[in-house]
Amino acid sequence: MSPPAVILSHPQMGENVGSAARAMKNFGLSDLRLIAPQFGWPNDRAQILASGSGDILEAAQLHPDAASALAGFQLVLATTARARDAVREVLTPAEAAARLREAESRGIKTALLFGAERAGLDNDEISLCDALITIPTAKMSSLNLGQAVLLLGYEWLKAADTTPATRTRDSFNDKPASRQELVDMLEHLEGELDAGGFFFPPAKKGAMVRNIRAMILRAGLNDGEVRTIRGMIVALVKNKYRGEKK
Amino acid sequence: MSPPAVILSHPQMGENVGSAARAMKNFGLSDLRLIAPQFGWPNDRAQILASGSGDILEAAQLHPDAASALAGFQLVLATTARARDAVREVLTPAEAAARLREAESRGIKTALLFGAERAGLDNDEISLCDALITIPTAKMSSLNLGQAVLLLGYEWLKAADTTPATRTRDSFNDKPASRQELVDMLEHLEGELDAGGFFFPPAKKGAMVRNIRAMILRAGLNDGEVRTIRGMIVALVKNKYRGEKK
Q1: How far apart, in whole angstroms, are the C-alpha atoms of residue A196 and residue B24?
Q2: Is the domain of B28 the same as that of B136?
Q3: Which of A10, A31, B35, B228 is the most exposed, having the fewest neighbouring CB atoms within 10 Å of its CB?
C-alpha cells in the first residue's frame, strides 16, 4: 500500500519543486517525478527550499512527457483551477484523497498530476487522467505549486488520520477527577460561600448552587486541578478572616 | 458574520507575513494583525510575497502584545505543534473551522493566533486562548507560517463550501443523454456486432450484451457523446465492409 506519486509537469521554478518536496515530506509522500523541468536538474534553489526533504529530490525521476511519467499508474488525478473543454469528473480534494486511499488499499498504483506554475496542465495531459481535482478557494484562486501539493498531501494524510476532532492534551498524565473529589470540592466551596453570606436570598440557593456546579463541571477538571482549587478556596478564606480581624 | 482574524505573534520574516496575507485572500479572510513583528513595518519582502493581497497588508493592525491584539475577540484558537505544560483542549483544523463558523453565526468575534516561525507561541500567549489547534502531519511536522495560515484558511472556507464531492464539469452545456438515445445507440452497436459475428457462442449473447451495456452506461454519456459514438460505429463498419470488398 504505497502513497500516491506526485508528478509535476513542466515546472518553471526550482523553488516550487523544493517546496513541493517539503510539503510531500510533511504529509508522508515520497515518490516525486518531474516532466521536462524548465531549469537544470539537480537544482540549487530546489535544494534550499526542500530543507529536510533532500532525499525526495535525490530520488526524483525525470520524464520527457506525461505519457512516460504516467505509464505505470492505474489511477491518476489531475489538479486544475480552470474549466476544460471536455466533460470530466471534478473532485474536491477530500473526495480525491478518499479515492486514492481506497485504490491504494486494493494495491492500485496512484498518482497526482500538477501543471506548470502559470500554464497549468494542457488538454493532452488532462486527457490521460481519470478525473480532475479543483481546490475550493475564494475569489483569488491562484495557489502556487507548493501550496497545491501541500493541500493535497494534507487531505491525503487526513483521510487516514485517526486523531479525534477534539482531545484534551494533558502532559502531567493527570486523570479526570472522580465524582467524589468533585463533590468534596463543590461542598467545600459552597460551605465557605454560605459562611460568607453569598447565597441570598436563601430561597434562590438551590438554583445558584446548580449554576455554579454547571460552570465548574464544564471545565472537565482533573484530580490535580481539584486539589489546586481547594487550595485556592483555603487561601481566599484565610485572607477574608484576616481582613475581618483587623 | 465576519471571518476570523489572523493574528501573527512576533513574526521573524516579512516574507512569511506576505505569504500569510496571500493565503488569507485565497480563502476569504481579511483581518490581519501583527504582534511586535521582528522587522520594520511596512515591509518590502512582505509586499512582494503578498502579490494581489496588498490591501490586507495595508489594513493590518500592529499590537505590542497578545493581550492587546486579542482584547476584542470572544473565541480565540491558537495553533501549536508541540505539547504544552497545561491541560488544554486540542482540536483538528476541521473541528476548529466548524467551531469558528458556529461562533460566527452567533455574532461572536473570532481569531486564529499563530506563533513565530521558530519559537511558536509562548505559554503566556497560549493561556489567553480558548483551545489549541494541531495540524496533523507525518514525522516531519514543521510547517512554515504561510503554510499554517493556508491550511487553516482552507479548512475555514471548506467548512461552508457547498461544492459537491464529485461533479461532472461540462463546458458545452450538453445534457445527459436520454434513455431513448442510449437504447438506440446500444441497439445500433449490438446490431453491427451481431452482423460481425461478435456474439459467440450465441448462448452467451445475453450476458455479453449486459456487460457491454454496463461498461458504456458507466461513462454517464451526454447527448453529444452519444452522437459521436454512433458516428464512430458507422465509420468502423464502413472500413470493415471496404476491407471485405478488396
Answers
A1: 52
A2: yes
A3: B228
